[in-house]
Amino acid sequence: MKPIESLTKDNIRNLKPCRHGAEVHGAAQESGYTTHEILDFSSSVNPLGPSKKALDAIQSAFTEIVAYPDSNSTALRETIASHFNGITKDNLVVGNGSTELMYLFAEAFLKRGEKALMAAPTFGEYERAVRKTGEAVKFVKLDKNFQVDVEAFKREMAGCKLVFLCNPNNPTSKLIPKNHLTSIIDSALAQDILVFLDEDFLEFVDDEKNTSLIPQIDKYPNLFVLRSFTKIFGLTGLRVGYGITSKEIADVLHCAKIPWNVNCLAQTAAAVALKDETHLQITLDLIKKEKTWLQTQLANLGSFRFSPPDANFFFIDIEKTGLTANALKHRMLKQGILIRDCSNFVGLNEFYIRVAVKTHDQNMRLIEAFKQALNPV
Ligand SMILES: Cc1ncc(COP(=O)(O)O)c(C=O)c1O
Fold it and tell me: What mean pLDDT do residues 232-237 have?
């Protein structure tokens, strides 16, 4: 038989894996700590975990696993719709994690020879989603303050079919100012370019309601806004995310997605989690307080450069420490702490790290471990 490689489609054979944070299993093997002992600052999710009500709902839903889940997550879509003004379930599509929707969107809309545009650095799965279709990716470097250069972005957008934007951006933790964002989307609309706007971290932002573009989906028929139950809702391992968009785009995606893509426990838990406003408020209060504390402590270390984060994670230039991100990561891991080495993000060198905001005790451990790693005795 011919080698399997020669039977594989070129676009699949050429795919490279995208490394992420939360590699606790590899970290455990390297460090000798168990996966439970490792304190994971590389994954920016709710440090309090999911709502207790959502966990109880999962237990009550156990008996439902004997049947197929609702293939189109109808009840969950209705719950999400009621959470936002002016949205119906027809504007919604639910995915197996929001990542599934990136792949689905690229697969549904990128025709042969078409290009997708994105910032560098940004979340790596947009690139892979495009490459998996076999089509081309174009990057626009962020400016020196890690902001989208609107004019450059608009210039490069000409001739593209689709653009990916992340607000606030991973790994930079920076919001795109609203007038910049709408200027890009207006320009995209005028050229029939689709905009995939990832708001997965927006619930952590102070003025979420006024910053989101969800209220503008009627104005922008080219806009798809992504949200996730992974981040603030902490349902990370269940895999559920959603997109809000025009009925036309949602219909296309429903038609293209695989059936039963979201399991019944995830559908139930997500609907309950969305309604647990108390848990969300406790989380937001904690993140706000701890972000302020960490900002002071990280600045006091003296050799870290960063600007105040908009999201629930810090993006830090560590070049002044004299260590690479990889070296610092290994020194931290020896102390049972996992941080994100950002050197595999397109557009970054080897001197950037990302750390999440966690509980006070955990954040104190982070700072102590940084002190130890930067000044080993
Ligand atoms: C910006 C961004 N969007 C999406 C995702 C993936 O989220 P999900 O777990 O919903 O697939 C991540 C994960 O790190 C992310 O950083």
Answer: 98
Q: What is the pLDDT of residues 17-40, one digit of tens each?
A: 778 877 898 899 888 999 999 999
Q: Is 95 in the pocket of ligand 1 (CB under 6 A)?
A: no
In a domain, 55, yes or no: no
Same domain for 125 and 253: yes
Please enumerate in sequence order all residues whose Cβ is within 8 A of that of 237, keeping only pairs 6 or more positions apart, or say none. none
Cβ neighbours of residue 364 closer than 8 Å, sequence gap 6 or more:
none
Cβ–ligand 1 distance for 127 under 6 Å, the answer no
Task: Indicate whether 134 and 13 sit together in one domain.
Answer: no
Domain containing residue 245: CATH number: 3.40.640.10
Picking from 198, 193, 190, 153, the residue whose alpha carbon sits closest to that of residue 172 is 198
Q: Report CA(104)–ligand 1 centroid distance (Å).
A: 14
CATH number at residue 322: 3.90.1150.10
Q: Atom 15 (ligand 1): residue with closest C-alpha? A: 123
Distance 100 CA to ligand 1 centre (A): 10
- Which pLDDT belongs to residue 192? 98
Domain count for the chain: 2
pTM over 0.90: yes
Q: What is the mean pLDDT of residues 283-307?
A: 97
Q: Are residues 271 and 283 in the same domain?
A: no
In a domain, 350, yes or no: yes
At residue 139, the 3 state secondary structure works out as strand
Could you tell which of 98, 229, 236 is best to mutate to test the pocket of ligand 1, judged by most ligand atoms within 8 Å of the CB? 98
Q: What does the mean pLDDT of the chain come to?
A: 96
- Ligand 1 in reach of 200 Cβ (< 6 A): yes
Confidence of residue 159 (pLDDT cuts 50, 70, 90): very high
In 3D space, the residue among 154, 201, 209, 194 whose CA is nearest the CA of residue 175 turns out to be: 201
Q: Is residue 59 part of a domain?
A: no
The residue type at 187: S
Q: DSSP secondary-structure letter at 64?
A: G
Q: Which domain holds residue 340?
A: 4-49+278-374
